[in-house]
Write the structure tokens for this entry.
Amino acid sequence: MIVGLPKGLYYYKYHKFIEKFLDNLHISYLTSPNTNKNILNEGIRTCVDEACLPIKIFHGHVSYLRDKCDLILTPRIMKASDGEYICPKFCGLPEMIINSIPELTTITSSPLYLNDKKKIYKWCEKVGKLAGKTPSLIKESFEDALKYHANEKQGLDDEKGFSLKIALLGHLYTVYDNHLNMDVINKLHALDAGVITEECVKMIHIKSAIENLVKKPFWSNMIGTLGSGVHLAQNNLVDGIVFLSSFQCGIDSVSIDIMKDMIEDFPMLVLKLDEHSGQAGMDTRLEAFIDMLKRRKLIDLDISTHG
Amino acid sequence: MILTFPHMGNLYLAGKILLDALKIEYIIPPLSNKKSLEIGSSISPEEMCLPFKIMMGNYIQSIQQGADTILLVSSCGPCRFGEYSELQMRLLKKAGYSVKFILADLPDQLKSNDHICGLDALFNETSLSKPQITKAVLRGIRAMNIIDHLESKAHLYAGYEINRGESKKLLKNALSTAYSIDDPHGALAILNEYKTKMNHIQIDNNKSPLKIAIIGEIYTVIDSFSNLNIEEKLMDYGVSSSRKLTPSWWIKDSLLKLIKLNGIDVKRFSKDYLSYWVGGHGRECVAEAVMAHEEKYHGAIQIFPVGCMPEVVSKSILPSISRDKDFPIMSLVVDEMTGEAGYTTRIEAFLDLLERRNASCTI
């Protein structure tokens, strides 16, 4: 049996775990290639128009895999941690795929609660059983993969060598998909700006940064981006924030505006990503933003020329 | 304290009856209109959903008339509605309005401060005793049930009535007469009176009008301004329509949710297509489409605001239902840019299609 791993959405966070798990079980797997134009176009063609770009790209990856493997992992992630949700589209992801992509092989549709180890195990057990593996082997592989995953360092933090430091925020599937975000990380590096992502901010800092919110936020993605952004900005640990947001992202429409309100006039650039984004416009905006940050540093006075 | 609350369909009438009984001073914002949407969109995030923008407009129009406290219901995700309170409070403050929020939410979700407080603040404001408050609340809920009943009957009878336009006129009269009365008992009596009148409308059971189910996102299906009066348009065409999502359904559902008994029929009808809750009313939408087919409706219209996360999921499922069951479903997406003419054309085209499907082939 060949298992297909679509390279989209939470793949970027959990691929090491699932790959290790499948390796341990001696199940062969096929990962779809990095997002490219064909995958993007296929995704746009199959997916419902109103969905956001990452969901469309995920559809493209599944379409790519549909005739190449026997089982495609399309996790229905219901919760990422206790008392928190993620985007509602994830809860209906298998249905969106089944109803949009014709002639599909088997896909996984059981719910996955990432806040509960037992439930993650149940999910992995189902995958293992489909390949005809014994429970003891599955248990062993699962524990090993979990340990391996826990030791893996996540996130990006360029320590030295750059004159500026930028907090690159956004959902991890927009930050790490280089086609979707038009290679923003390398572009920032080329402009002599180092990058730090939300995974490198400690959870206690994130929690304390959003303590003042009246309503407890219930999206894990929002807590991560908002908390780390506010923490980094208020403590002046970075020179500016670049926020990657996909067009029509419901979570970002809330978190961007709350963030703007909390960090006041700290420099922040919001890059909206959709299937029509042009490279040139993106480059210009990044360059302008970096130029602004450099001048700000040079003048060292946060007073505008207009008084 | 001068209270105000956002509009949602005809809910303002039930709110008025409740607040009159509680003897709390209040201001009802002008019925949602182009101006309120314009004001709302100007200070809301661009990609926020339509209900948020209309609500912001309602608040500001009320504040301009002197309101200083806003009453709002809240939820705990995963749909954006749960974050409305936080963002609206910040945006109003930024725009220079100092107001207090009274939020009906689960107690552990909120951190009270000067600007935000729980529902108990509302009841502290009245001079009534506890049993009187309970009575007033129950009366408000009863009024809401009657209004929902009047609406659903009027929408249903529009296709069957002998005197065209009678049910529509009756509904309008009921709302305006009840609104003009400040005494809660009197208003409720008027509503009851109109309920009897509505039940006695002359109908012709031999007629077989088109029957359409309105499904989709709860605010946009209930609020006639945001869906450009779709139900009234259908009534004018002599089409019977019905929708399951009403304010009284919402209250019932929320109460049943506390004991996890909600949505039994939703689960039953949606099990072939969507077997998990996706937040908002996405699963309800799918279930209602299947239900409408089983109840021999001719078609269904889904309405949702641009970017509504749960409805995007259901929109991707609806074509499959339509294909499997040979049941026409049309999706209409509304936002502040929706033009009335294009919208009407699509509804008319859809009705034409349904009519022709009904007629026998002439060749």
Q: What stands out?
A: Chain A has two domains: 2-151, 164-306. The mean pLDDT of chain A is 86.
